[in-house]
Amino acid sequence: MAEPKKLYIKTYGCQMNVYDSERMAEALGGQGYVETKTPEDADMILLNTCHIREKAAEKVYSELGRFKPLKEARPDLKIGVAGCVAQAEGEEIIKRQPMVDLVVGPQSYHRLPQMEQAVRSGTRALDTDFPEEDKFEVLKERPKSKRGPTAFLSVQEGCDKFCSFCVVPYTRGAEVSRPAERVLSEARALVEAGVREITLLGQNVNAYHGHEKGLAGLIWELDKMDGLERIRFTTSHPNDMDDALVEAHGTCGKLMPYLHLPVQSGSDRILKAMNRKHTAESYLKLIARIREARPDLHLSGDFIVGFPGETDADFEDTMSILREAGYGTAFSFKYSPRPGTPAAEKTDKMVDPDVASERLYRLQEQISSQQKALQDSMVGREVSVLFEKRGRLDGQLVGKSEYLHAVHAIAPESLIGEIARVQIKESGPNSLGGVLSA
Ligand code: 5AD
Ligand code: SF4
Predict the structure, then answer these.
(1) Is the Cβ atom of 107 under 6 angstroms away from ligand 2?
(2) Contacts of 185 (CB under 8 A, 6+ apart)
(3) Quick one: which atom of ligand 2 is closest to the CA of 162?
(4) Which residues line ligand 1 (CB under 6 A)?
(5) What is the CATH number of the domain that holds 392?
(6) Residue numbers of the domain that contains 424
(7) Cys-Cys with 80: which of 46, 149, 244, 378 at CB 3.0–4.6 Å?
(8) Which residues on neighbouring strands pair with residue 408, listed in sequence order?
(9) Tens of pLDDT, residues 15-62
């Protein structure tokens, strides 16, 4: 049998890219590739890129530069760029970087096997189409090999919301949902391979309409699946949190009490300029409704500071909503103009970069303090932990609580892939420590 070829994939950005990288590796598996963790021994290097924030393209070019010596030493080495920078820059990458053999967008990576054949025969391949066919229909069933206890499953891609700062509607295209039966069959295969927790992914996942009852309908179908113990989903838009999904948070046993629901800003003026189509108040009311259904819900969010025109008062509104909504964690970013988006044209309203940095610093301090307080409040409580792997200490396992806190405890290795009750005893910088409940 021929020696397998080696594939090195480097993944940037969101969980959807992590999922896409797995699928790309599987697609190239059919071409005789196995994954390697080091670029030095790879026959193909793929960068799966992200375009969401600052200097994305420049970062890709500089990363490519690092592979130049490898390519010079082994001209047979093939180098590809995938993901959202590939989509946005396409032809430009081929022109600017002669050592790139292949450029493939996020909607066309099912064509990688043919593209790989083309590059092996010495041509360069570019595909940034939004093809008619659904890539998931073309990709083979996922391999049955044993997997870890948690997995991502992509159910929806693209976005029709057009927040004025965001490239996603351009790089990932219009909102498309995978039919529920396809999602369920992929979920079943994951569970058979050992997965106990599935995180449903989509750029705007709660706009999912591949089931007649929307995302809640899909979640309820998954709730019935034997062997699957936990369901999560990310990322959502507040305006797509329908009643059924709010209710599922209270009644669906497998749906975990953790929700990532970005608000971006606490100022109505800025929310309007961002084209978010909701207000701070409507967001807070929604959170109150979800908490009514599930009082112990842990809320996570995304924030942008320094959006064009943001004043000190607007920023204070953001600080207020951070406290009022009671986030247990949040991700925060300094606004960066993305080419082609409406907000990028507001060059006359740009916030001074030092002011933006200072706001980001204050916001992050507040987020850290809320995060720490919430984590500390877990001490003395009993949580459910899905153990994923060995910990740093002998005999220790680590896993995640229902609230997505990392938890470590002394436990037998047979508990990997199992859910156990753990009494929390201590709160460290990045994780909780506990003991198995009697
Ligand atoms: N500048 C800064 N942050 C951004 N995000 C999206 N676009 C931009 C941008 N142009 C952030 C948002 C989004 C998260 C994934 O990235 O907060 O929710
Ligand atoms: Fe981007 Fe999310 Fe807004 Fe869609 S809802 S445009 S993905 S920030």
Answers:
(1) no
(2) none
(3) 6
(4) 52-53, 165-166, 262, 264, 302, 304, 333, 335-336, 338
(5) 2.40.50.140
(6) 382-436
(7) 46
(8) 398, 433
(9) 999 999 999 999 999 889 999 999 999 999 999 999 998 788 889 999
Of the listed ligands, the closest to the CA of 156 is 2
Instruction: Say which residues have a Cβ less than 8 Å from residue 118's Cβ, sequence separation at least 6.
Output: 125
- Assess whether pLDDT exceeds 70 at residue 1: no
Q: Whose CA is nearest to atom 6 of ligand 1?
A: 166
In a domain, residue 86? The reply is: yes
- Chain-centroid distance of CA 426 in Å reads 29
User: Which ligand gives the minimal distance to the CA of 172?
Assistant: 2
- Give the pLDDT of residue 136: 87
Q: What percent of the chain clears pLDDT 90, i.e. is strictly above it?
A: 91
* C-alpha 17 to ligand 1 mean position (Å): 16
Rounded-to-integer distance, Cα 249 and Cα 259, Å: 9
- 167 domain-assigned: no
- CA nearest to 309, candidates 355, 278, 346: 346
Is 421 contained in some domain?
yes
- Among 87, 105, 127, give the residue marking a domain's end: 127
> 């909102």: which residue's tokens?
175
Q: How confident is the model at residue 137 (pLDDT cuts 50, 70, 90)?
A: confident
- Average the pLDDT over each of 64-68, 286-290, 395-399, 431-435 and give the range with the smallest value: 64-68
Number of the ligand 2 atom closest to the C-alpha atom of 160? 4
Q: Is the pTM of this model over 0.85?
A: yes
Point out the ligand nearest to the CA of residue 161.
2
Atom of ligand 1 nearest to the CA of 165: 10
Q: CA quadruple 211, 217, 223, 226: dihedral positive or negative? A: negative
Cα-to-centroid distance, 304 and ligand 1 (Å): 6
- Residues 295-307 have pLDDT tens digits of 999 999 999 999 9
In a domain, 38, yes or no: yes
- In the reported structure, the alpha carbon of residue 396 is separated from the centroid of ligand 1 by a whole-number distance in angstroms of 37
What is the pLDDT at residue 344?
95
How far is residue 293's CA from residue 26's CA, in Å, rounded to a whole number? 40
